[in-house]
Amino acid sequence: MSKFIIEGKRPLAGEIPVYGAKNAAIKMIAASTLISGLTILENVPDILDIQKILVILEKMGAKFKRINHRLEIDTRTLKSGNPDPVLVAAIRASIVLVGPLLARFGKINIPHPGGCTIGSRPIDLHIKAFRDLGVEVTEDKNLYTFRTTDQTPRQTVFPKISVTATENILLFASAQEEIITIKNAAIEPEVLDLITFLKRAGAKIAVQDRTIRIEGTKNLKEVKHRVIPDRIEAGTFAILAAATKNSLKITQMEPEHLDALLEKFSQMGIVFEKGKDFLYIKAPEHFSAINLTTAEYPGFPTDLQPPMGLLLTQACGQNRIRENLFEHRLGYLKELQKMGAKVRFLNSQEAEISGPTPLAGAKLESLDLRAGATLLIAGLSAQGKTTIEHAENIDRGYEKIEERLRVVGASIKRVS
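Structure (tokenized):
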């Protein structure tokens, strides 16, 4: 186990680049199991979650080669069988291996996937969708078995929008020589990037509003694709600049993917400049309180709610947060209370935050990926020394974060 030690209130300045989207790259790595040849991905972040899913596939016979942010994957030697249950239990996104491995081998056993402890994350939407498409699904002591049948798949309608369930069905359907329709689908930028990848491989996919129509093929071809920039990382850096009241330029990103965040910045009075592939945050002297509610894209992203909650501790007035996607994602606010934040919990998904409140360094627990990144920003905003335990939680989604923050002036070090 390692930890971060931060000396806060240091001036920050300069540029910080955004790397590839974690939540797009993982799904394309899963998709590589459907490709009869090489899959070449560029702009792939070297983070813990990517490393884990590669190990899962490597143990099944896949081969890969990484050169910086370029990843070559060859799954022609992939062996029929089940992914390692211990590894699957360590990464939530491993659930998207069901679609492609089921399409390739006709059967897969997989335990309930692991991941961040931000509330229950059932896979019932995945199971319903696969059953809609004629897949037999059984459960025995937390082990799920998916098996294809002779039924002809046609359509699935999600009762609730789910990003990973949408992607799982996309992957499965792209290797079926049938026309399959997904209704009430997720349309996050990462989902659309996966669709671009699959179309380059030979699948015919059309998107209209929240309906996706897929005409697949069993002969998906080699693909070379550049992963989109990570909008959550970009948003995290933008919030970092505002919370520490410094000017920073965030580069190698797509600003239009952050419209919901930038709308909140405008409401708060935080000034920014938006370019084709950059975002410049001007150091704010003060900013106003707001109400924040998370929602599926294009609404405010749940993954930016924790760092935004930290920002609201520095806003003038009474703020209110409503987390609609996960029932236990406000735990980070208890860590911020250790630093002096004024928080009143209304229930497990709602809280009021009063500000601005000076923060003081403290010993903190990272809890999960996004909470950990939030506490990094808190430490940089606070007076004195902050220690954040379990740095590996942050490593799941941010590549060499301490090195990148030091470039713009942060005092942060990793201690084993």
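The chain has a mean pLDDT of 95. The longest strand covers residues 317-322.
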